[in-house]
Records
---
Amino acid sequence: MARHIFRCPLRWADMDAFGHVNNVAFLRYLEEARIDFMFRLAPGEGSASFTGGSVVARHEIDYLRPLVHRHEPVTIETWVTGLAAASMTLGYEVKDAEVLYARASTVVVPYNLAHQRPRRITAEERAFLEEYLDGAVAA
């Protein structure tokens, strides 16, 4: 199974009053990694994959260690933990070489913005996502 690697810079404004990266900032970090994974790595030049819209149906985050501001980016690894007809579940690890700061997952539903409703994952999107599937059975 492949994992997508995203190097996310930390911003001074991400810290809370206790000097740690605020829990809400972690959601932004996951969003940046997810967008980099789904849009910049979308298959094929000119492909419409992943460009029709998507919505987040669920987030789950386990905070394991405090993350404090620093100049070096944090690494976010992203992979697919579940794949159904009209949704995908992404797994994440927020870490550096020495420390795992958080584990998370997000359920993403492809969405047809023009019709204002969920849509099925296309064959092209499925082929791309399966490269990052952790071995779970695709539905």
---
Amino acid sequence: MKKIIVVGTTASGKSTLARKISQILDIPHVQLDVLFWGPNWTESSDELFFAKIQTAVQGDSWVVDGNYSRGNHLTWPHADTVIWIDLPFWLNFYQSSSRAFIRALTKEELWPGTGNYETFRMLFSKDSILLWFFKTYKSNRKKYLQIMGDPKHGHIKFIHLRSRSEIEKLIGDLQRNF
């Protein structure tokens, strides 16, 4: 495992797992949200976003987290491992709603230097992370099941994690083996 991608629905634990893998394997962690979002919730153009991704994955090893399909052509052909966090709906919803509520309460900045933070108003708007969760949970499951069976990704080892205990087991296995 040298070039790893961690995917999953919002609040599934992608960044947390990627950060732990980065620490265990001593490889760079690339969070696609950090590359994509600018101040005041401005989205990067594809040109800028793709340039940032290309720069971030130039090395011999990395762990990338995020679901930005538009940039898959820059990471997936080089990846040797894709870890899909596929938690049950109820658990993923619980994590998404509790995380959003806590972030709105604490005004935690989401990505350093952006000034972007969640608010209670956002939780109940058309831009709500909870609404995004409902829109993407089912389609993400379908998408990643299809990708796992696609021969063009035959070079990739897929790890399909369906519970917190499977996530913890993977972390423990990595700690013992690396």
